Structure formats: C-alpha cells, structure tokens
Fold these 2 entries.
Entry 1:
Amino acid sequence: MSIKDLFKEKTVFSFEVFPPKKDSPIEIIYNTLDELNDLSPDFISVTFSAGGSSNNSHALDIASRLKERGVTPMIHLPCINYTKAEIEETLKQIKERGIENILALRGDITPEIPLKEDFRYASDLIGFIREHGDFDIAGACYPEVHPDADSIVDDIRNLKKKVDAGASHLITQLFFDNDAFYQFREKAELAGIDVPIEAGIMPVVNKRQIERMVTTCGASLPRKFVRIMQRYEHNPEALRDAGIAYAISQIIDLAASGVDGIHLYTMNNAYVARKISEAISGIIGA
Ligand code: FAD
C-alpha cells in the first residue's frame, strides 16, 4: 500500500524500528515486531544504516517480515555513502520484495565513513529513485532546522526542492516543543510545501536517552520536560511512566491542532508503544 494515500483518509499513526546490531541475529527483534504489529499502526518504518553499524540486509528482511504479517513497511534509504550502482542494486532488492515505500535520506556526514560522489542531497536520491521504479517516496524535515543549514530560510527552501523532486510526504526529526513544530509547519505552508507532514515523537523513557538528548540531539528542551527528566532520572519506573505521559500529552496537543500524522520513534520498545497507542486510540483521528 502506498502511504501517501493514507493521509487522505485519516491522521496517520506509524512506528519506527531499527535492525539489531551487526553481529546480532535478526531473530532478537521478532517478538518486538510481532507486538508492534498487534498495535495495528498504519505503517512501520525501518532504519537503514549509512555507517554500517547495523546489518542492512536485516533492514530489508524486517521490512519483508512486516509485509508478510500484513503491516505496510517503509524502508529508509540514506545515499551519501553509496554509489549510484549500489543504490540501484538496493532498489532492485526493495522492488523484488514488493516494498513500495521509501524514506529517501542524505545520511549524516561523519569523518569515519567515506563519502561517495554520486549523491549530495536527499533530493538527488529522490530523482534517482523516481527514474528506477514506481515507489512512494517520503523525505525528512527539521522543525528546529537541520544542523548543516545556514538558516531556517535556506533549510525550508531546500525542503521545497525535496518536495518538488517528488517527496509525497515528510516526517520530522524528533522534537519536544510542539510550538517549534507549529512554527515550522506555518513556514513550510508559506513556502508552498503542501504535502502531509508527520510529527516525529520520541518518548524519553530511560537515563541513556536523556544523556543522548542533552548532548547530541539539538532539539530544544522545554522547562516542563527538563523538570521531569531531572526529577526522575534516578527512578527508572517513574522516568519511564513520566516519559510516556509527556509523549502522550505532546500527541494529544498535536492531534487537536490537526496534525497529518504521528511517527513514533519506538526505539524498539513495544511496551512503550503499546502504552502510547492505548492512550491515544480514541483521540487520534477523532
Ligand atoms: P537533505 O534533505 O539532503 O538535507 C541535508 C542538508 O542539506 C540540510 O541542511 C539542507 O538544508 C541542505 N540541502 C538539502 N537539499 C539541498 C540543495 N538542493 N541545495 C543546497 N542545500 C541542500 N540517517 C540514516 O543514516 N539512516 C536512517 O535510517 C535515518 N532515518 C531518519 C529518519 C528521519 C525521520 C529523520 C528526520 C532523519 C533520519 N536519518 C537517518 C538522519 C538523516 O540522514 C540526517 O539528518 C542527515 O543529516 C540529513 O538527511 P536529509 O535526508 O534530511 O538531507
């Protein structure tokens, strides 16, 4: 099923999962996948490592398994570390498995992973994918500006290029401050970006995640969020419950403001996904 059509019918609710680490067997994620499938999300996206920290054939296998179990998969596809020939081969495999939906990405530029010359931006990849098959293509977007962009104006202009290249819907980077999303959505609309934008929500439910948020994520942390994290960082259960509650309150506010969809960064935690799904089932799309 093509994901872009779902937005015409409802507020989309989707999950994101990542494959096990390179040396781990794929089977360790099967229980989680089955539990997530039972929650009947509109689709599940599977990350694809630009740096090779996970096994990318696992990503394809996970997407195939989701499809076999009746859930629409979306495969992520970063491009800057791959040649055109490598991407073409991956597209062939995606097509052979009957996967129709791709999240086209540039990938992060890091000194450890050599860049290839063939693709510079996600929009280059989108054009290439369009030439090589009939896929539904999504793109990423950044309510608080992509870190490489000189300004919000440049970033939004570049986002428009991505949509013009053929991205039929967008998924945001995680954010904790809904106002940042609302301001971004307005600017995107003013720039003529008229495709659905799914809001990326990450429940922060353990101390490791808090540390990562503070050091690397770049998302602004509202005072309410910081208070919760500081208060409960040494109480794992309370932190988990408070993190879930915070994500639910974000989602309710977004749903009330007519968001096109919610993309839950599940971090492969089916318990958290279930708690959130149950809490919002009567609200999202109501
Ligand atoms: P682009 O859209 O190419 O943008 C990158 C930068 O270039 C921006 O600053 C933009 O303003 C600028 N730019 C874009 N187009 C142009 C242009 N035509 N001219 C000039 N400047 C331009 N990474 C992975 O490796 N694997 C994953 O599975 C993965 N999943 C992700 C899922 C989501 C929902 C998100 C938000 C990110 C994900 N990422 C993933 C991370 C992503 O690869 C990085 O954020 C990366 O740095 C940018 O990717 P992009 O596709 O947004 O890049």
Note: The chain has a mean pLDDT of 94.
Entry 2:
Amino acid sequence: MICENIGVNDAGHLTFAGQDTLFLARQYGTPVYLMDEERIRYNCRLYTQAIAEAFGPGSGAHYASKAASFKHIYRIMAQEGMGVDLVSPGEIATAAAAGFPMEHSCFHGNNKTDWDIAYAMDMGVGCFVADSITELEAIHAQASKRGRRQKVLLRLTPGIDPHTYEAVATGKVDSKFGVAIETGQAEGFVKAALELPGLELLGYHCHVGSQVFDSEGSVYHDAADIMMAFAGAIQAKYGFRMEVLDIGGGYGVRYTESDPYVDIPANLNALAAHLRALAQKLGIAMPKVWFEPGRSIVADAGMTLYTAGTVKRIPGYKNYVSVDGGMSDNPRFALYGSAYTVLSAGRMGQQAQERFDVVGRCCESGDVIQPDVALPQPQRGDILAVCTTGAYNYSMASNYNRIPRPPIVMLSGGESYVAVRRETLEDLLSCDV
Ligand code: LLP
C-alpha cells in the first residue's frame, strides 16, 4: 500500500486509519473526505523533531495551510507546536477563529491588498512575507498607523528549477512570486526594507516549488547556496545580519506505488549540515531556519470515498465509472494531470480484469478523477476510495454545477467525528439575494 494507514480487514474491506471504509461511507454518506488525525500529527512530528535536532532553538515549521484550511487543522497545529503559513484573510480568519496563537503565523501572497495587510495586522499575524517593494511600503504604512514595527521576511526567487510540474514551480527567476536575486533587484528590496522604520527585517524567504522529490538534496542545497551567498553579500555591504532563513515547503508525497519515498528527517539533517558549512565558509552566523510544509503534512492523511453510479463500456474504445463527486471536490487531475491510486473499497480481494476512467458527475468531459484504473467488476453502489487526497482537495474544491462540498470526517483512535459538515443546498443559496 502507498501509506501505512491503508489496509484490508478480515471482511476484505479497505480500511483507513484502521477503520472500515464501507462502514464510514454508510455512516457519513458519500462523497466524504476522511482525515487520519494521527497521521497528521505523525507528519508534524517528523518535522518538529528533526528540525529541533538538526537546527536547534528558533528554527521550526509553519504548516502551509493552503493545503487544507479548516478550523480543526489549526487546533492540531497549535497542539503540535507548529506555526502556520496563511495566504488570505479567509485563512487568517479561520486560524483566528480556531484560537490559533497568531504570533506563530506568517502571511504570504504575491498581491496583498491594503485591506488584507490591515486585517492581518489587526488579527496579530506574526510575520509578513513581503513580495515586492510596493508591498513593503504598504506594510510600513499600516504598521506606522498602528505605531508598531512589523516583522517581515523578504520573498526572493533564487532562480531554481525544482523539476516539478510547471504550475507549482515558484522559485524560477521569471516567477510571479518574489524578487529575483539574479537580476540584482533583490538588493534594492533589502535596502528598501532597511530604510522603512515601520518594518523589522528578520531575513529572507524562498520557496522553490511543490511536490519536489529531492532525493539527493540538490534542490534545497542549491537554494541554500544562493540564499546564503546573497545573505553574506548583503551583510558585507550593509551590515544586515540575516536572523531567519525561510526555505519554503515542497517535499513530495506518494500518490502511487511508483512514487519514491522522501526521507524527510534525513533530508533536513543533510540540509542543516550543508547550511552550517556554508555559514562557516561565508563567515556569517547560522540563521534560524523555517520550513513551510503543506502537502507532506496532510496529503497521506486524506482519503476520499465516493459511491459509483453509472458503469459504461464502449466496446473497442474505453470504459467509464462515474462517481457522485468529481472535479468539484478534487480538481487536481483536471488541472495538473495528477496521478492518484483508486481502490474499490468492498472488492479488495478481487482481481481486476478491465480498466476504467473514473470520472465525476460534473457537466464536462474534463471532469476526470483518474483515467485508466484497473477495477474489479464495478457496480452501481460500490464504494470507490481515492487515496492521498488530504492536500489541495478540500482547499481547492468548488461549487461548480452547484454541487455542495463534502464533509471532512476525522479519524482518531478508532473513533470518527465531523470537522467540517457537509454543505447543504441552503448553504449554496445563502449568498444569493
Ligand atoms: N510555501 C509557499 C510559499 C508555497 O507557495 C507553498 C505551496 C508551500 C509553502 C507549500 O508547499 P507544499 O509543501 O504543499 O508542497 N495546488 C497545487 C499545489 C500548489 C502549491 C502552492 N504553494 C497542487 O494541488 O498540487
């Protein structure tokens, strides 16, 4: 199985976090997002323990909550000693409503409006990751109005290709995010930050991309080389010492059996050694290092259950199984061609003789969850499970075709509870006047 939390019980049913998925589908209805709370906590601890050991005090992880944002996830992050990365007033409001200690949050985004900045400050966001000089000025203006200094990191683009899919590669020179080092513009960015008294510059941020399989450590080591050299050059010229280096998120997860494993603690250890050697070589202090994992915290803690409906065979062409959700709850195949593992929850012991495109109920042909899946004798009423859906599924879900979003059901210690209830038709109508 692609993750240890997936199994099969004596009845031949698929289990998730040790619980029978057919039972859960009956109890909560479908489509439903399941989330394995213990797995989320386990993934958090992989980071917090390895970072504490390898980097020491002041370093840490901020969960990139764009991967899955709902109140309960922020409570889990607070309990696990994680900071959070927030990218919109909506995520800020959700974290605050959950009682998350906002001083441990960072506010990101390539286009924060004046209203966003004011709201984030009033909600007590700890650190802003500034994306441009004009944004620095806007943060300075709001901080001055409130008579305070706002902690900031500067988002820089180190010019690295992480060899992931184009839509999630963010650290290249021509990215819409941040300010490029290669073009010389990053220096002016730092100067501007140092000159604005409403800002307390902590250091620099970069994020090279998402779903990165960095088995040799090269992507993060390359980013570290560039960021540390830049910090050294700035320190020599302006005397500014980088206190924090935020190296972003991005470790990849296993969606299918053919995806590799990433040994996150080993990678973090190797990166710490690399950064220490660089600091020594450049004659600068080792910074506190922050990470922003999203996908690798929640992806393998998620599974979506659907009920199969129409089964259609077109002899000589292809076969389809339609499910009761689709691109409205998981747009990732439609957007990125993402691979997923699809299992027939009640037929785990049976051999598959045929292949099917597993498609959704939305009114377009691009509404595909996963093409070409081997499934044993699918029937109307079967429960199909899509694995590794904990990241960027609920958070990217829409009401396309006026389809209500599924609930999030948390699984923990053999129990289950609803963290986000199923949207109703009334919810769908609630904004219409
Ligand atoms: N930090 C920053 C600044 C980011 O932009 C991102 C992701 C992360 C951290 C977290 O990266 P992760 O650990 O999750 O790889 N919707 C796409 C993914 C977009 C990622 C955007 N940024 C998908 O479904 O694959």
Note: Residues 64, 67, 85, 108, 168, 170, 207, 210-211, 248-250, 292-296, 332, 336, 392, 396 surround LLP (CB under 6 Å).
